[in-house]
Amino acid sequence: MEDAPAVAEYLRTRDAELFRMLVERHQGRVFRLVAGLLGPFADRDAQEVTQEVFLRAHQRLASFRGEARFSSWLYRLAYNFTLQHRRRARLRLPHVPVEELEARASGDGPHEAAAERERQRRVERLLEGLPDLYRTVVYLHYWMDATVDEIAELLEVPSGTVKSYLSRARARLRERAPALGIEGVE
Amino acid sequence: MALENDDGVRRLLAGRPRPQLAEDFSHQLMRRVRQQEEAGRGVGARLVLSAYWFSSLGASAWILRQGPLPEWAAAVLWCAALVLVPAGYAFVLWSRPDALAGRERR
Question: What is the DSSP letter of A41?
């Protein structure tokens, strides 16, 4: 069954299996989008945020009128909700990267651990300093290994626009890297 | 730390583990969906009971204003409005623990 008829049927019958079918059909892509939006420095919440996205979608299902594709409606909801969560989370808690925790727990000497912390901090500042869209396409493409076409579908933009975002993001990274002590940027 | 075109960006992110979706994700989610629906029904039940209680109070006050009633009749009326209806409200909530699930879940 296609998405839109399944939504209409679910709203009529409240048959949980229909909603489960929609979840299982879209959970992988929504999770990738959420992970890409949160990024590798705050990815621990990815699963919880993905659940919240689907719960919110379930609450608002009646507002889906079938004018757009269900996947577009869902990805838009995931995008907006995850960005909100990301902003709230960054205000609430100082983020400690996983690598920092690992370095603390490992047997590395204090100098190596400090150097690694500093390196990670600079990389995080470089990547997290990108605007939302550029940062998201960089994480989706280079970290989550999403193709340009897949990113285009998730963000609802043409593939050419994704390529343009990636190109501009790389340009910004090249521009900002020297100031953060990251060398070899062409 | 080099950063050259695609490879450079990839290197920046290399070694960072990618999160994986749990295998039982949809199972966990459907459990929360059920809780959400039950909590919603609990809110509905509370609203209906509250409306019933307030309308009972209003009706009792209206009847008492209409004219003198025997003392026992007024006592029965107030007892019904102020004790039995709230007691019924509490009984319905306590006998349906799922009605409170939404508040207890987090």
Answer: T
Query: What does the block give as tokens for B50?
Result: 């509250």
CB of A56 within 8 Å of a chain B CB? The answer is no
Q: Can you state the percent helix, strand and coil of chain A, rounding each to 5? A: 80, 0, 20
Q: What's the sign of the alpha-carbon dihedral A114, A120, A122, A125?
A: negative
B18: contact with A, CB 8 A cutoff: yes
Using a CB cutoff of 8 Å and minimum separation of 24, what contacts does A174-177 make? A174/B3, A176/A126, A176/A129, A177/A126, A177/B3
Phi, psi of A35 (to 5 degrees): -60, -40
Sequence-distant (6+) residues with CB within 8 A of A106 are: A113
Q: pTM of the prediction?
A: 0.71
Distance CA B79, CA A54 (A): 47
ipTM, two decimals: 0.75
Cα A143 to Cα A161: distance, rounded to the nearest angstrom: 19
First to last CA, chain B: 44
DSSP state, residue B17: P
Give pLDDT tens digits for B72-95. Answer: 887 887 887 788 777 777 776 666
The radius of gyration computed from the CA coordinates of chain A, to the nearest angstrom, equals 19
CB A43 within 8 A of CB A124: no
Contacts of A27 in chain B (CB under 8 A): 21, 25-26, 29
Residues constituting chain B: 106
